[in-house]
Write the structure tokens for this entry.
Amino acid sequence: MASRSAFGILIVFIFLWTAADASAFLPPKIFNVLNYGARADGNTDNSQAFLRAWIDACRWKGRSRVLIPGGIYLLHSVTFLGPCLGEMTFMIRGTLRAPNNPALFFTDTWIGFRYVDNLSVKGGGYLDGQGASAWPYNDCFKNSQCLSLPISLRFDFIRNSKIQYIRSINSKKAHINLFACDNINISYVRLTAPENAPNTDGIHIGASTNIKISRVNIGTGDDCISMVSGSQNIDISEVNCGPGHGISIGSLGRGFENEYVMGISVRNATFSNTQNGVRIKTWSPSLSSLAANISFHNIIMQNVNNPVIIDQKYCPSCPPSGDESVSKVQIRDVKFSNIWGTSSSQVALSLQCSKLVPCQDVKLVDIDLAYRGQGGPAIASCSNVIGTSYGRQVPRGCL
Ligand SMILES: *[C@@H]1O[C@H](CO)[C@@H](O)[C@H](O)[C@H]1NC(C)=O
Ligand SMILES: *[C@@H]1O[C@H](CO)[C@@H](O)[C@H](O)[C@H]1NC(C)=O
Ligand SMILES: *[C@@H]1O[C@H](CO)[C@@H](O)[C@H](O)[C@H]1NC(C)=O
Ligand SMILES: *[C@@H]1O[C@H](CO)[C@@H](O)[C@H](O)[C@H]1NC(C)=O
């Protein structure tokens, strides 16, 4: 019997082998950066060695893997270009360390990937952005000498790809940036920077479609996840965010006319000690744009300053005058459901929409947010919002 079933397996195997592209079954060809002159001594710049390994891997017709074994690798700014001839894996087992000096960067990228299809970046390693020396130059509101600082991991024009099992610490600017990407899955990543490190967004998305983010831990000095113009069909689930500024859509309305963000779903997220929870913000004044079909579901707030917020008067550097300038961004079809926990400010729910184009079709379903500080309980504050509410409503009074 045993030999007969072994024979069966062999037949099935031969069938699969001949039926499908054989290369899919072969192990990937390994391009180890150590064979290209890389040195894990923490001092030698490895950007050229990594590039040589990438170029060979990219020209390989079949699956290939650029391997960065354990160890600490100093790496200056580098961008890995496609298109490549086969599936690419960039396997980071070691620690990649950015140069300390922010003035050494002449681009806005530390590690970039461009024009690659079927890329997988993974390996369990670390990206150490060495941000502490750069952060003082990052805050253009406070510092006249503000430099253009690099994003740690930048993906431009990347399709059908995955980013998994990567840790990024102390990025100089954003940890991960997606621009003009399609069908990207990000999971099991951990992104950390101190709460007071300016502009260190966790994942920043623009002009990208079909992005899935799940099982990520983000604690940083700016938004955990932010989505700006051209973000469409973004599915975010199982996120732990904190510290940070929450998950944000916007700021919208400062680029071109008729921009949009659409089809955003955020589920099963926990926010701990963040400045905001779930937020939509548009510049004031702003051009006409659209933010629509957005849902926030199953969200836990732990001591969050603005748990639920729509802010159509966003303008941090504007004088706090009577606001005659209004946003022309239309926000519609937004659902907040099953959101509960604690607010660290009394206004737990704040929907401040535009006088000119009120928010439409907003739904509040099962909201339960407590404020335990002085002058409590929690209150809701809304203006120019059209919509409905049902289920539990604490605080109530908005819709
Ligand atoms: C990427 O994967 C798709 C689907 O499997 C395949 O059609 C395409 O040829 C691949 N491209 C590269 C460069 O591997
Ligand atoms: C991302 O995940 C979705 C759903 O799990 C899947 O359909 C899609 O093929 C995945 N994309 C990539 C590039 O792995
Ligand atoms: C709304 O967005 C979801 C993704 O969150 C998408 O599946 C759905 O098709 C969108 N609906 C409309 C009417 O665009
Ligand atoms: C979200 O949480 C609910 C309730 O805990 C669970 O049933 C559901 O499977 C989760 N969904 C995702 C996408 O994690």
Remarks:
- Residues 26-155+165-183 form a domain with the Pectate Lyase C-like fold (CATH 2.160.20.10).
- The helical segments are 2-19, 47-59.
- The two ends are 70 Å apart (CA to CA).
- The chain is about 10% helix and 50% strand.
